[in-house]
Design a protein that fits this description.
With 472 residues, this protein is of the alpha/beta class. The chain is 39% helix and 21% strand. The protein has helices spanning 2-37, 40-63, 65-88, 96-102, 104-115, 125-134, 153-175, 180-204, 258-266, 295-309; strands at residues 314-318, 322-326, 334-336, 344-348, 351-367, 370-386, 389-395, 401-405, 408-413, 422-426, 429-436, 444-448, 453-458, 461-466. The strands form two sheets. Strands 1, 2, 3, 4, 5, 6, 7, 8, 9, 10, 11 and 12 form a twelve-stranded mixed β-sheet that branches. A two-stranded antiparallel sheet has the order 13-14. A hairpin with a 3-residue loop joins strand 1 (314-318) and strand 2 (322-326). The longest helix has 36 residues, at 2-37. The radius of gyration is 32 Å and the shape is globular.
Amino acid sequence: MDEKLIQRLETAVARLESLSVGSQSREIDFDTVAAASTDPSIIAFEELLTEYVGKVSGAAVKIGGQVRDVTNVLSEAFTVQKELLIKIKQTKKPDMVGLGEFLKPLNEKLMKAISMTEGRRSDFFNHIKAVAESLTALAWIAYVGKDCGMSMPIAHVEESWQAAEFYNNKVLVEYRNKDSNHVEWARALKELYITGLRNYVKSHYPLGPVWSTTGSAVSAPPKVAPKPSAPAPPPPPPASLFTSESSQPSSSRPKEGMAAVFQEIGSKPVTAGLRKVTDDMKTKNRADRAGFVSAGEKEVRASVQSASKVGPPKFELQMGRKWVVENQIGKKDLLIDQCDSKQTVYIFGCKDSVLQIKGKVNNITVDKCTKMGVVFTDVVAACEIVNCNSVEVQCQGTAPTISVDNSAGCQLYLSKDSLEASITTAKSSEINVLVPASGPDNDLVEHALPQQYIHSFKDGQFVTTPVSHSGG
């Protein structure tokens, strides 16, 4: 009985000691967080969260759905950055490996936002893309010096927003006369970065975050020992990319890897080991094998191959507000003649087809189409051409905005009423715009939009001019 009592007492003492150590460590953590929270930079970041992030979140709640979900990711990312700014004040400046491990929580939020842009485009693709592109601005915290391979913190925030503004402007154009909540959200998103984050970085961290000189070091992730059955990794190369080559001539060194294989091949006669082809082995002299493929067989193979890559064709009005035209192949007589200004048209995966839209619609999107023709009367917001190849789009009425993104070979036909349209292009080539001539014959005049630019440094800034095209 005495031994059992002693064991129970020892167990109780051990538990009390562990609880005591845990409480001490928690008190230390709370003290460090409390000390960092009184720092003016942390207080200013909390104000940024309350004022600017709160404004974006408030507008997203009114919209709901995917806009609210992606805005929640944005809010989480800014909260993570606040936590990292607090940790920086108690952490020594790490190396590049340690910095990657330190910023891992922030990177997870960025990847989460990017993953929401993948898959089929939703009605709120521009909202999601604007957030995903803008969140790269939070990487300013990774600036550790002029040799780190990125711009200064203030410039990095501005450059990141420029990439996101392309999609944010699409939201403004699409919902300008449609839904004020979306306009409020887009404007609040811009204020968050250009007014909020840029001014915060300018005031507190213009040269990057200030790491502690006496704090703890960033612990690298533990290395997992290889399994006994796995082969040992190859030894590192004898010379680094940043060191000079060995004094031994390269010709005198023994070849390794694929170089040894090519050396062995080159040392043998070219025709060594080849069998002689006799006349009876040639295809043209063999009766059991045809030397040609009929046109019918080619068509069958091509149709089977194309059918296996595309989904089922669709031509329908979904929920009374979105026309979906998908995977139409070789259809020249597609027609939408019952539409209104509140409906949108989404054209996806069509090839060698022609679609005519009679009436006024809110928005038209042509996505991943090849040799596609689209003729429409009027559009309220914008006509978008994305990821397309060899498409022709004709506007017979009015279109305030036409955007071409990541496409090649695009012909735009504008009417007299649509000459004031704003045309935006990005990562696209071979874009020609045909407009009516001013003469009485009303012939179309073709203008090639520039796809190459010249940047020259003059008077302290870069001046960009387009490269002229022949016939443009």
